[in-house]
Write the structure tokens for this entry.
Amino acid sequence: MPILSDNSLDFTSRSADQTRRLGMRLGSLLRVGDIIALTGDLGSGKTTFIQGVARGWGSTDSVSSPTFVLVNQYRRPDGTQLHHMDAYRMQSGSEAEDLDIDSMLESGTLLVDWAERISGVLPHERLTLELTWVGDEQRNMIFIPIGKRYQEMMSEFRHLAFGG
């Protein structure tokens, strides 16, 4: 288990609904150019969390894992897009670069499943979310903000999700 910085947050979700609600709170804070890097094994709750993020961000599109298409796009009425990339089947970071990460960040927000597989080509400043399966209804979530924008986002997120 990593040593957490003061800006990090370690939380155990007790249900899929709670995981989705946390995603909704975070989704409401996202802006064009933001990137969230998600890590965790199969069944750790990444897609469930992203379903909440998309809803909180303002999309009414159905969210599913883009394992076979690599990137799903969800829209908002204002035309911005939420890009959901799945790096599970990628063999290298260059495959992700070929998908033009920069243009995705210019047109919207990027969520990356299995981000550890392509971390070398992702922007250094980002919000990393490490998810771990604990039990049938429990998932451990560690939010690690890197950079001022993401530290501010975590401060707002803490307030929205937990008050105070």
In short: The longest strand covers residues 126-135. The longest helix spans residues 148-162.
